[in-house]
Write the structure tokens for this entry.
Amino acid sequence: MFARRAEQTRLGGVGQVRNSMDRAAYLLLNRLDLEGPMGVKALAAGMGIDSSTVTRQVAPLVDSGLVKRTSHPEDGRAVVLQLSSRGLAKLEEVRASRRELMAQVTDGWTENERESFCTLLTRFNTALSARQAGLPASDTETPPTS
């Protein structure tokens, strides 16, 4: 049930922004925002997918002006992908909508319940990541929440 609900709300959000960005676009824009400009190979490696998939997924983002292709600062022959100001604005709009959805879903929760949920969900996600990387879940630490 958890997986089904998570999939149903993965685009999430409320209002007009709801379902306005597909999963691949969100993940690509989010990574470019968090890690800065990078080449297709680095983006693909960081996301655990192949370069041809990234190339295919990023093309509509470039066409719509959410991502820019620019020259690499150290090697002008290489191309890097960079989040545009329009892309950042759209990403922030979707993030705000998702935060609002989570606030609505947890509206009746106490602060302690929210903190416990965040701690356990972080621990769960860390264990899943460790499993995917072939590490025992006990080798991972739960990052502190703040």
Remarks:
- The two ends are 28 Å apart (CA to CA).
- The CA atoms of residues 119 and 132 lie 20 Å apart.
- The chain has a mean pLDDT of 84.
- The beta strands are 67-71, 79-83.
